[in-house]
């Protein structure tokens, strides 16, 4: 079974972390549907799933497309009251009728698009990751972006950010019930773009895979944001104190959110272990945080020395 997905991650435009009860109201995007909330190990709010109907083309190979009809599932997530994620996914299956059917047929099969005509799942997965989604192609990023903009436009947000940051798009595919050994591959495609390929023999792993890709997107955004701020800041030299002041808000709002795999099931968390062995997310995060703390400590010692010297004179 082939699943296509995309996750957009960015800083919620608010000057202070939203309390969890405000986050619940913010993500109540569907009337009468329950918003999920957890407070351990960190505040985490998830909106109800929403369905969007699509009738479009999907890439199924090099310069080849096919018609796809069905529904895309989206949801919004608020992590720590500060980080907004918008996640879209759909399961791609072959149409048994090889023609367009009434919408009632597709609504009875939510979270699924049916591809009209023959296609190979592996070719479709690779083509989806490699192709820029311009009309009339399936654009999960645009659908996820619509949900994100609806949240960002709420009057509950003061539209004041504590620091500047960018948005990162993570596009992913999952082959469930695959014959290959379980594996995950994370690739940095360019500035603000990532891809993830998941293979698992477990046919019922979809909820865990969705959570995994959202968790990957979150921690990649945290790491990219922090390392980008450090790279732009002159942590040594005469302007070091001012640079540390610019980085300090990120320390206040982001460091406590670094908990890779904390919300994942045991069967899915092993993918994080595999990524850590190859990509070294945690090692880079730890080294970056330690570098900042060392500079903060040095800056504090210099300031104490200056104050002591002034008092002595």
Layout of strands and helices, then pairs:
Elements: E1 2-11, H1 20-26, E2 36-38, E3 44-46, E4 50-61, E5 64-79, E6 83-94, H2 103-107, E7 112-115, H3 121-130, H4 140-152, E8 168-176, E9 183-190, E10 193-200, H5 206-232, H6 240-254, H7 266-279, H8 281-312
Parallel strand pairs: 6-7, 8-10
Antiparallel strand pairs: 1-6, 1-8, 2-3, 3-5, 4-5, 5-6, 5-7, 9-10
Helix pairs in contact: 5-6, 5-7, 5-8
Describe this structure in words.
- This protein is 39% helix and 27% strand.
- It has eight helices and ten strands.
- Helix 5 packs parallel to helix 8.
- Strands 1, 2, 3, 4, 5, 6, 7, 8, 9 and 10 form a ten-stranded mixed beta sheet that branches.
- With 313 residues, it is of the alpha+beta class.
- The protein has two domains: 201 residues, no CATH class; 89 residues.
Radius of gyration over C-alpha positions, nearest whole angstrom = 22 Å
Range of helix content: 25-40%
Shape from CA axes?
A: globular
| Strand residues, percent | 25-35%
Average pLDDT, all residues: 89
Domain unit count: 2
Helix/strand order:
EHEEEEEHEHHEEEHHHH
Structural class: alpha+beta
């Amino acid at each position: 079974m082939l699943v296509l997905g995309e996750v957009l991650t960015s800083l919620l435009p608010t000057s202070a972390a939203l309390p969890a009860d405000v986050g619940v109201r913010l993500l109540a995007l569907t009337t009468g549907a329950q918003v999920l909330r957890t407070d351990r190990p960190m505040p985490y709010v998830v909106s109800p799933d929403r369905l969007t109907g699509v009738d479009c083309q999907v890439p199924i190979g090099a310069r080849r497309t096919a018609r796809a009809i069905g529904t895309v599932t989206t949801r919004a997530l608020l992590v720590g009251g500060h980080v907004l994620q918008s996640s879209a996914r759909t399961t791609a299956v072959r149409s048994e009728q090889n023609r367009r059917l009434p919408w009632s047929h597709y609504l009875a099969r939510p979270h699924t698009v049916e591809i009209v005509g023959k296609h190979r799942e592996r070719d479709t997965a690779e083509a989806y990751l490699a192709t820029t989604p311009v009309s009339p192609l399936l654009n999960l990023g645009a659908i996820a972006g619509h949900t994100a903009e609806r949240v960002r436009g709420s009057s509950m947000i003061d539209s004041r950010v504590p620091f500047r940051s960018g948005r990162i798009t993570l596009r992913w595919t999952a082959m469930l019930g695959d014959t290959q050994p379980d594996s995950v591959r994370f690739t940095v495609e360019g500035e603000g773009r990532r891809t993830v390929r998941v293979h698992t023999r477990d046919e019922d792993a979809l909820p865990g895979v969705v959570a995994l890709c959202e968790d990957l997107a979150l921690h990649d955004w945290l790491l990219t944001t922090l390392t980008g701020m450090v790279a732009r800041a002159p942590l040594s030299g005469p302007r070091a104190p001012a640079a540390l002041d610019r980085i300090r808000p990120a320390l206040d709002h982001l460091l406590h959110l670094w908990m890779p795999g904390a919300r994942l099931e045991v069967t899915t968390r092993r993918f994080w272990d595999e990524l850590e062995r190859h990509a070294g997310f945690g090692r880079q995060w730890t080294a970056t945080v330690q570098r900042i703390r060392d500079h903060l400590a040095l800056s504090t010692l210099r300031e104490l020395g200056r104050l002591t010297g002034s008092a002595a004179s």
